[in-house]
What does this fold into?
Amino acid sequence: MSRATNTAAVHDLPREEPLRALHVVPRKGGRGGPPSRSLKVSNARVAVAMLLVAETMFFAGLIGAYLVFRVGSVAWPPPGLPALPLGVTWVNTVLLAISGVTMFAALRGIRRGDEAVLRRGLLWTALLGGVFVVVQGSEWVGLVRHGLQLSSGPYGGTFYTLIGMHAAHVVGAMGWVFFVFAMARRRAYTAKAHDAVEACAIYWWYVCVLWAALFALVYH
Amino acid sequence: MIAASLSVRPRGVSPQRATLCAILLTVAAVALGGDEASAQGCAMCKTAIGGAGDPLARGINASIFFMMAMPFVLFAAVGSWLAYMFWSGGVAIDDGGAAAVESDVGAPSIEREAVR
It folds into this structure.
């Protein structure tokens, strides 16, 4: 088919949104051929999936190092070093879980086209994430005062590296949430076009789930 | 190597077949042309670990199993997600243009161009 004919055929069609979907399964057939199915996933989701796979392998490496020391040591925590505070961390975990719920509310709001709910949900999410980081920081200050430092052997080293990297991810995710919030204030999202909100929400939930895994592994 | 094979492919050989042949040749060259590799642990690990009862050996084993499992877990997770998307309706039906695209992701104009 010539290019001119092709262009004319496309112009006959109703206007569509620009290309933003990935066809994973190649199509067969065509006019007159048997129907075929092709998987459609938005580019934003594919990008976030790739990011999460990379993040998972990164944290898997850190957890692997942690396991070497934890499983390989006779006493954990080593004698003379403080145990990790469980109570306040439980509260912190609940706060992060609630932030996942507020993010869900924000996403559900924009899916219905309610921008006010989106903005409110994003603000609450960022606020709870901020509280999580602040409580985490105060917990660290207490641990340092009790003698647990980065140089306190594998116990301190792996703890601060693992939990610190997660805290850095929470801060990064908060930045992402603020960016989406700023875009939402400019009315950039609609009920049909909110891929950026979905991507942000998926990342935030990933950070929450990752914390649950780290909490179960490191604090118990 | 693949690029070189594709650039010199004889007439009548499709690019797909040329690519496949190039990949197979590369795999064969890597598999058959390498030096002998001994299936032993690295010297550092062997020196550091006292034996099967050593706690450090348990730790390293746990870490190895964990790290080894992660790619499989990720592959299964992404595969399950794609399968879920495929079977839960996130698909486009190509029947030659008779039916509209079903998903809410947005029908790409390039696909419609290709269909016609």
In short: The first strand of chain A starts at residue 21 and ends at 23. The helical segments of chain A are 3-12, 43-72, 87-111, 115-145, 153-185, 195-218. Residues 1-10, 26-30 of chain A have pLDDT under 50 and may be disordered. Strands of chain A lie at 21-23, 36-42.
